[in-house]
């Protein structure tokens, strides 16, 4: 069964990728969608099988590498964590596949698109089923590759190419950290298999190693290296700049890869490696700080963006930040739960935004939207559902997962928990504001799009709306349906040891916050309501206020609007020096020195030598005869000297 | 000694000698004799003469008072020479017709030259060596100058003759020195005599002169100067003939002389051959770079390849001899194939020899371009092509014999040489087609190009073990 789950998307990729020409548009769409849907259905069964029947197992697929001390197989590690990811990945992937049938209808390179989507799904499944770090790295790189391919899918757009390259390069930084982490793990533990590593983790706690005269803690080092990898993939502060740009890709891609699945790979990695992180409290602290800072900072950026997809993209960064700081506070269950619910409502928002863009003839700027409420009511309704869930409206899925994270931060005794809580609460307010701002700007008010565009506005076809409805159901219901399993009373039975904790379960404490404790229990909801109210005021009641506020707080507005100048700083610090060094090495190092002295110089010399030898070939017999005699004389002389004993 | 010597070992030579004289008579008597038909007859005759050579199963046997030897080595080399000659004769017909030099002497001279080469291969005394060499050379001098209406051709013939005469003089002088210091001309006795004579400077100088004379025939540097001029000036079929069979025969002679006659002086001739090999490889690589005439380019290419073959011989081991045999066999196929292509190069003004005329050949004549590309890759020694194996075996022999620097220089030189081979491939496949280039080929040339290309293509992987086996057998009889 697990073989089918993992390999069905690969089969889809091969069929659509290699045979797309013969299958045609319709064939590729149907085959890939059907295969991924099959995986999705089986994933639910697997989820049931593992969670209810408790049949966690490891399934050997094939021998992979045997090289000296390094030896590992290709195997599926099936436990609760894996099946949760299987469900998320396959379900969202199947939905996005089906949605794309409508969305990509007019694209000429349809089979290629579906092939990439399926390849992505396969890579993601490789990642989450990995039972050793190298296999995980394989999937990790695979999703990076497909992400690159899909961001740059419309390769005739220069912006898409630039975004694809940016995503790839920024991810390389993270991947480098991850690979160093794997090397370090192998060095310390002598294996790349997860289970032995986890078993041996405790023994290595607190040990140090010597590096350039410093003696850092081994596990802290490994965990921070792994976390750098996670930061790259999950777009955490510092390495987040690629994610908003990645919105250049087709919207279904943004929903699948850059909201629901790939970007959560970092969270998955941290949770999967929880046995290591638990023994490295300093690393956990780093995770918390980075996560909380990301949640807050990217939310501030989202406040003022005008591109509908970028708002959601920054929102994704922000929500990923929540997940990380939950993991940093050892509330891995809460992190996974938020990952799970976020996948629903963020995919819903993205696909809804896609429907809006689709309806408006590829318009993405919210300033040129408005008044769509009555024209595409179904999309409006679904977007509102997504927004409610994202902002944490009571009883929606986001409410359960996000409030748990904040409550954990509230009760935690960790050194940075207070900071995380304050930033998190601030981010809740901003989340509500920018989410409703998006809704109000897009659907309310007067139409700002040109008339001919508005005339063509239409509700999306059912093949796009039905997947959205499924996601909406998840966004509304997944919270109360699963909260008890992920973070509540059934915690131990549900996770069944796939998450490791040293101390007590901090979520246990979070459940015991009394109802009267207003900051702990009610503040997130209050902030959410306040954000909604402010957005309502700014964008429905007093439309002059946003501009006035922007003027009044011009420096802050500019800072937010320019995304804290991360791109500019990177451009100045890395890109330009890199280009400078590159150009220097190219023009001077390679062109002048290596080519000049090496290939070009040598070839010039060879040519000159050839010409000179040709000059010897005068055509006169007596020259030739002379050469022969000289040759004979030389040889004879040599022998007379060295053999004749003269 | 019998009144009539045992003729069986020389059956092939006898067939050729009689046949050549019959054809000569026929040429004189029968008017309107078509040269193309005579060509075919000559090729057929050589193939018939090949039969007694190939069925020679006997052990090493000498005849004519010990002046003629027939052994496995001779079988291998003769087969190679005779096939090369037959092919060269076959592909010359069209050219002779186009150039209006349809003289019946042409194929007959080639047959006689072949006879000379066979004599060289089977020579087992210094005199029969000289006789074979001169028979071959005299024919070649005439052949080079056979296009009497063209200055270049006569110039080439004259140059070849004068320089050839000089080198024959050097050779003869060397022979007389060797005879003077040992008192014998038989290779077999010489071997023993020299071992007994020890460190004799006169003898060594005699050997140097003999080797110099032979080096002229294989056009090893610095005795190579005639090669480019003669290759360019001589009619192309003659050049094709010159480039293959005589080189093989002269190399066979060199191998036999060094291995059987001067084993006692191995260190000395190794030194000479190393010098010749290095000089030839380097000059062959560099001098060809600026060439624009493909025949001249092939002349330098030949010089370079002789250098590589000498690397194997310089190793001085049985493995080295084996490598030389393999190398010469592969070299013959590459060269003949390439020249068959050159013989097809034609534009509106007639035959052309400019490399630039090959531009864009892949678009006008893809099959010929492919074949020529295979030959160029093979000549350059690109792996999986036959030429690669030739180089592989000689370098391996050199390395096994401890001649590391020789092998390294050889590899480096082949890198340089690869440039001009690959340039032709680039020209054919990536450049704009040259105007008015209309390659023409008659039936024999198509077959020859096809077969040679197949032999040089990666298909050679299937045949190389056969060749290695044959070479090992031939080299074994020589040493044993």
Summarize the structure.
Chain A is mainly α and 646 residues long. Chain A has helices at residues 2-53, 80-103, 110-129, 133-151, 158-189, 194-204, 218-233, 242-245, 251-260, 265-272, 274-278, 281-304, 308-328, 332-359, 377-391, 397-411, 417-443, 451-455, 462-486, 491-495, 506-511, 518-541, 545-552, 554-561, 566-597, 599-616, 621-642, and strands spanning 57-67, 70-78.
Q: Order of SSEs of chain A, N→C? A: HEEHHHHHHHHHHHHHHHHHHHHHHHHHH
- The number of helical runs of chain B is 20
DSSP strand count of chain A: 2
Q: Name the chain pair whose interface involves the most residues.
A: A-B, 27 and 35 residues
Describe the structure.
The complex is a heterodimer of chains A (646) and B (480). With 646 residues, chain A is mainly α. Helix content of chain A is 75%, strand content 3%. In chain A, a hairpin with a 2-residue loop joins strand 1 and strand 2. The radius of gyration of chain A is 30 Å and the shape is globular. By secondary structure, chain B is mostly helical. Chain B is built from 20 helices and 4 strands. In chain B, the strands form 2 sheets. Chain B has a two-stranded antiparallel ribbon. Chain B has a two-stranded antiparallel ribbon with strand order 3-4. In chain B, strand 3 and strand 4 form a beta hairpin. In chain B, helix 5 packs parallel to helix 11, helix 14 runs antiparallel to helix 19 and helix 16 runs antiparallel to helix 18. The longest helix of chain B has 32 residues. At the A-B interface, helix 26 and helix 27 of A face helix 7, helix 9, helix 10 and helix 12 of B.
């Amino acid at each position: 069964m697990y073989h089918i789950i993992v390999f069905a998307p690969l089969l889809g990729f091969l069929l659509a990728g290699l045979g797309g020409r013969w299958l045609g548009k319709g064939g590729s769409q149907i085959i890939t969608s059907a295969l991924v849907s099959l995986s999705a259905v089986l994933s639910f069964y697997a989820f049931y099988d593992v969670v209810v029947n408790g049949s966690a197992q490891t399934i050997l697929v094939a021998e992979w590498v045997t090289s000296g001390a390094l030896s590992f197989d290709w195997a599926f590690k099936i436990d609760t964590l894996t099946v949760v990811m299987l469900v998320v990945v396959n379900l969202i992937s199947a939905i996005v596949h089906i949605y794309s049938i409508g969305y990509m209808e007019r694209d000429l390179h349809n089979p290629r698109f579906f092939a990439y989507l399926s390849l992505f799904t396969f890579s993601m499944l490789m990642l989450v089923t990995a039972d050793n770090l190298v296999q995980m790295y394989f999937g990790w790189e695979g999703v990076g590759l497909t992400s690159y391919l899909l961001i740059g899918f419309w390769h005739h757009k220069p912006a898409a190419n630039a975004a694809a390259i940016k995503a790839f390069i920024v991810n390389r930084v993270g991947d480098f950290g991850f690979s160093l982490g794997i090397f370090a793990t192998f060095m310390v533990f002598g294996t790349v298999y997860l289970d032995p590593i986890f078993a041996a983790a405790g023994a290595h706690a607190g040990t140090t190693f010597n590096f350039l005269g410093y003696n850092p803690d081994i596990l802290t080092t490994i965990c921070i290296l792994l976390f750098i990898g996670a930061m790259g993939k999950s777009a955490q502060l510092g390495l987040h700049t690629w994610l908003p740009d990645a919105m250049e890709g087709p919207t279904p891609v943004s929903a699948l890869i850059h909201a629901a699945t790939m970007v959560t790979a970092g969270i998955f990695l941290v949770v999967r490696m929880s046995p290591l992180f638990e023994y490295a409290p300093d690393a956990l602290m780093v995770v918390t700080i980075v996560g909380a800072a990301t949640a807050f900072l990217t939310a501030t950026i989202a406040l003022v963006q005008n591109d509908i997809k970028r708002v959601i993209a920054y929102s994704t960064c922000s929500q990923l930040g929540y997940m990380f700081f939950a993991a940093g506070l050892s509330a891995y269950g809460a992190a996974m739960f938020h990952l799970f619910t976020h996948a629903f409502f963020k995919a819903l928002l993205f696909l809804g935004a896609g429907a809006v863009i689709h309806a408006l003839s590829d318009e993405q700027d919210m300033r040129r939207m408005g008044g769509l409420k009555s024209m595409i009511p179904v999309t409006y309704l679904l977007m509102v559902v997504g927004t409610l869930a994202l902002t944490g409206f009571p009883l929606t899925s986001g409410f359960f997962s996000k409030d748990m994270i904040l409550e954990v931060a509230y009760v935690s005794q960790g050194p940075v928990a207070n900071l995380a809580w304050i930033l998190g609460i601030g981010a809740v307010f901003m989340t509500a504001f920018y989410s409703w701002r998006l809704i109000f700007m897009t659907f309310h008010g007067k139409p700002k799009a040109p008339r001919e565009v508005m005339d063509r506005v239409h509700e999306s076809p059912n093949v796009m709306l039905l997947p959205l409805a499924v996601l909406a159901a998840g966004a509304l219901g997944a919270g109360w349906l699963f909260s008890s399993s992920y973070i509540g009373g059934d915690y131990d039975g549900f996770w069944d040891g796939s998450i490791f904790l040293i101390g007590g379960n901090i979520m246990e404490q979070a459940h015991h916050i009394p109802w009267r404790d207003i900051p702990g229990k009610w503040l997130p909801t209050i902030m959410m309501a306040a954000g909604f109210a402010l957005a309502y005021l700014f964008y429905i009641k007093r439309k002059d206020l946003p501009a006035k506020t922007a003027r009044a707080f011009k420096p802050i507005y500019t800072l937010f609007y320019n995304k804290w100048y991360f791109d500019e700083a990177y451009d100045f610090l890395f890109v330009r020096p890199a280009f400078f060094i590159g150009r220097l090495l190219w023009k001077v190092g390679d062109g002048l020195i290596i080519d000049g002295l090496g290939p070009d110089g040598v070839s010039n010399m060879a040519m000159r030598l050839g010409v000179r030898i040709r000059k010897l070939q005068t055509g006169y017999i007596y020259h030739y005869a002379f050469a022969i005699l000289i040759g004979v004389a030389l040889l004879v002389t040599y022998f007379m000297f060295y053999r004749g004993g003269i | 000694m019998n009144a009539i010597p045992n003729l069986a070992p020389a059956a092939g030579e006898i067939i050729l000698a009689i046949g050549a004289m019959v054809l000569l008579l026929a040429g004189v008597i029968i008017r309107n004799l078509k040269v193309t038909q005579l060509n075919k007859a000559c090729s057929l005759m050589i193939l018939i003469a090949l039969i007694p050579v190939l069925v020679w199963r006997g052990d090493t046997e000498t005849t004519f008072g010990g002046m003629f030897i027939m052994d496995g080595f001779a079988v291998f080399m003769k087969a190679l020479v005779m096939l090369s000659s037959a092919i060269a004769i076959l592909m010359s017909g069209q050219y002779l017709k186009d150039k209006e030099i349809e003289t019946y002497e042409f194929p007959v001279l080639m047959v006689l030259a072949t006879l000379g080469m066979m004599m060289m291969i089977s020579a087992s005394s210094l005199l029969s060596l000289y006789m074979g060499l001169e028979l071959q050379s005299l024919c070649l001098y005439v052949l080079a100058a056979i296009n009497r209406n063209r200055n270049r051709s006569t110039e080439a013939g004259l140059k070849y003759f004068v320089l050839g005469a000089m080198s024959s003089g050097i050779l003869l002088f060397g022979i007389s020195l060797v005879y003077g210091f040992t008192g014998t001309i038989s290779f077999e006795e010489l071997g023993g005599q020299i071992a007994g004579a020890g460190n004799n400077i006169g003898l060594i100088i005699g050997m140097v002169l003999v080797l110099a004379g032979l080096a002229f025939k294989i056009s090893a540097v610095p005795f190579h100067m005639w090669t480019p001029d003669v290759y360019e000036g001589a009619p192309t079929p003659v050049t094709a003939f010159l480039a293959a069979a005589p080189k093989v025969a002269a190399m066979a002679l060199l191998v036999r002389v060094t291995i059987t006659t001067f084993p006692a002086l191995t260190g000395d001739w190794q030194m000479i051959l190393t010098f010749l090999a290095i000089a030839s490889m380097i000059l062959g690589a560099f001098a060809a770079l600026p060439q624009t005439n493909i025949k001249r380019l092939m002349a330098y290419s030949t010089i370079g390849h002789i250098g590589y073959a000498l690397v194997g011989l310089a190793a001085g081991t049985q493995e080295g001899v084996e490598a030389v045999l393999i190398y010469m066999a592969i070299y013959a196929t590459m060269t003949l194939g390439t020249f068959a292509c050159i013989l097809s190069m034609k534009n509106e003004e007639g035959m052309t020899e400019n490399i630039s005329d090959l531009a864009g050949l892949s678009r006008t004549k893809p099959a010929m371009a492919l074949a020529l590309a295979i030959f160029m890759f093979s000549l350059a020694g690109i792996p999986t092509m036959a030429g690669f194996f030739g180089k592989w075996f000689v370098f391996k022999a050199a390395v096994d014999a401890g001649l590391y620097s020789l092998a390294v220089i050889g590899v480096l030189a082949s890198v340089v040489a690869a440039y001009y081979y690959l340039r032709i491939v680039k020209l054919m496949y990536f450049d704009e087609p040259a105007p008015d280039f209309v390659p023409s080929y008659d039936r024999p040339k198509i077959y020859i190009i096809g077969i040679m290309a197949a032999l040089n293509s990666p298909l050679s992987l299937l045949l190389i073990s056969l060749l290695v086996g044959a070479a090992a057998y031939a080299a074994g009889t020589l040493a044993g």
